[in-house]
Amino acid sequence: MKFNILAISLAILVFLAAQGSARKAKSLSKAKQATSCQQKSTLTGKLESATDIASIARTAGFSGNGLIISIAIALAESSGYTQAVLVNTDCSRDRGLWQINSRWHAEVTDSQAFNPQSCAKAAFTISSGGTNWQQWTTYTNGDYQKHMAEAQKAVGKNPGKTPTPVPGGSVCKNYGATCSSSARCCSQYGYCGSTSEYCGTGCVASASFNGKCA
Q1: Do domains 40-157 and 162-213 have the same CATH topology?
Q2: Largest CB tally within 10 Å, which of 17, 70, 81, 207?
Q3: Rounded to whole angstroms, how far apart are CA atoms 156 and 153?
Q4: In the chain, what are the domain boundaries?
Q5: What pLDDT, in 10s, does the model give residues 85-142?
Q6: For every residue of 58-99, which 3-state class applies, written as one string?
């Protein structure tokens, strides 16, 4: 009789343990499912032109190459829609003109991300004043390059104030010119000068070739 009682007790314990493991596995499965979403892009809100984006970005503090890149990235990221949203597979959301991520930049609220000027200010801060765009996929994969010509044109239509010299550098007086010799350098956007010269927030320099931008 004692043996039977012991066997029954052990069987009950095994059954309860199995039930607990099943519930735990089910909970973990639900938690895993909750952190996985189907990627989906929605383009809504006001459609801003490249010229409008240039004005918005400049007001936020962008200038020089940083200004041009900021416009190109906004066009590549959101196509110019102020309330564009991309739901990522990790369920985070990229929001607004510059697609500010809700997980990595939770300090930026939805209302700020969907406000063009607030979104531009957030992008300015995240990009270190337009000098570091590594957090934007369209920059790292090169997609923004498709919009560089349009961005440059937009800046030409809305030039704003003439840029002022920065310490140790100079205003790009020969914008769009070719470099005079291999001793000079130029940015991929047409700014020429020596390696110690900067345009606005900085010159992304590359070597010249036969007097032309490489």
Answers
A1: no
A2: 70
A3: 5
A4: 40-157, 162-213
A5: 999 999 999 999 999 999 999 999 999 999 999 999 999 999 999 999 999 999 999 9
A6: HHHCCCHHHHHHHHHHHHHHHCCECCCEEECCCCCEEECCCC
Quote the tokens at residue 209.
């070739």
Kindly report which listed range (82-86, 131-135, 186-190, 204-208) carries the lowest average pLDDT score.
204-208
Single-letter code of the amino acid located at 190: G
The residues, ordered by sequence, that sit 6+ positions from 211 with a Cβ below 8 Å of its Cβ are: 178, 179, 180, 181
Tell me which residue has tokens 């959101």: 78
Q: Which of 177, 154, 174, 190 is nearest to 73 (CA)?
A: 154
Tokens of 104: 């990595």
Query: What is each CA distance from 178 to 27, 87, 142, 174, 202, in whole angstroms?
Result: 64, 43, 24, 8, 18
On whether the CB atoms of residues 207 and 214 are closer than 8 A, the answer is yes
* CATH fold for domain 40-157: Lysozyme (1.10.530)
Q: Which of 174, 184, 191 is nearest to 209 (CA)?
A: 184
Dist CA 56 CA 11 (whole Å): 71
Helix, strand, coil distribution of the chain in percent, nearest 5: 45, 10, 45
Site of tokens 């503090």: 61
CATH, range 162-213: 3.30.60
pTM exceeds 0.85: no
Burial of 123 (0-12, 13-18, 19+ CB in 10 A): buried
